[in-house]
Automatic annotation (TrEMBL):
Record-annotated Methyltransferase type domain positions: 46-133
Record-level GO BP terms: methylation
Organism: Nonomuraea cavernae
Lineage of producing organism: Bacteria, Bacillati, Actinomycetota, Actinomycetes, Streptosporangiales
InterPro entries (UniProt xref): 23S_rRNA_MeTrnsfrase_RlmA, Methyltransf_11, SAM-dependent_MTases_sf
The protein's name: Methyltransferase type 11
Record's keyword annotation contains Secreted: no
SUPFAM superfamilies attached to this UniProt entry: S-adenosyl-L-methionine-dependent methyltransferases (SSF53335)
Keyword list, A-Z: Methyltransferase, Transferase
Top-rank taxon, per record: Bacteria
Pfam family, one: Methyltransf_11
């Protein structure tokens, strides 16, 4: 179980390998559906930190101009292949300011689970009246799992209200802000290993060799008590230029 989870590919942002081994509740708002509605009305859209392009490629309709950015080479290849078939383009970007696009280039900018939101740059590349639409990771997300390996952590970052303040400071008007905590269950230690290899910021520097004792303890706990339960935090934010 450990060997399989340690060697299976974690490229892209597809979690289907965890089917039957782990589960996570989804936010009630339905990000992909809402994004699809906005993409269908847009003329030029930018998706920041697109991952493997899974979300965009799965939407019913994309704007005539659709561009995505990504920094991780394996995801770049996946995203380019997926979006090329839909008429979109992927730009390699280091995810630091400045965004490699002209001012006012887009009427829609989106991002699902960005590592960091560069509000001033988003405001710059949006046209007047344009929209930023994003689902983000909230406070203390999956901290039960992170703290199992790392001990107590500071959970003050990723406050939705701080995101509102930063958006407004960049000149945007926040028109929607919602937050939820969602139950996660890990049914075996292999699922935990795969998840931590893929979502690398939960336990930075994670490897099986480094955390073998903790993994053994976690395996024993799951065998005795049942699934390991954690909670993800998500918030939806929509802002207008």
């Amino acid at each position: 179980m450990v060997a399989e989870a340690e060697t299976v590919s974690v490229d892209g942002w597809d979690f289907s390998w965890l089917d039957g081994r782990a589960s996570e509740e989804r936010p009630s708002w339905g990000y992909a559906r809402l994004l699809g509605e906005r993409m269908a009305e847009a003329t030029a859209a930018l998706d920041i930190q697109t991952g493997g392009g899974e979300i965009l490629a799965g939407l019913p309709k994309l704007p005539p101009v659709t561009v995505a950015t990504e920094s991780w080479p394996p995801n770049l290849r996946l995203a380019a292949a997926r979006l090329r078939e839909r008429g979109g383009a992927v730009v390699a970007d280091d995810e630091e300011p400045r965004l490699p696009f002209r001012t006012g280039a887009f009427d829609l900018v989106s991002s699902r689970h960005p590592v960091r939101t560069w509000w001033t740059e988003i405001a710059r590349v949006l046209r007047p009246g344009g929209t930023y639409f994003s689902q983000q990771v909230g406070q203390r997300s999956v901290f039960e799992l992170a703290e199992f390996f790392l001990g107590p952590l500071d959970g003050s970052a990723r406050d939705p209200e701080q995101a509102r303040r930063e958006a407004e400071a960049a000149g945007l008007t926040v028109v929607d802000l919602r937050a939820e905590r969602l139950r996660m269950e890990f049914h075996d230690v292999g699922a935990v290993i795969y998840f931590l290899r893929k979502v690398i910021w939960i336990v930075p520097g994670f490897s099986v060799d480094r955390y073998r004792k903790e993994l053994r303890d976690l395996h024993d706990r799951i065998q005795t008590d049942g699934p390991f339960v954690a909670h993800s935090a998500r918030f939806l934010i929509e802002a207008r230029a």
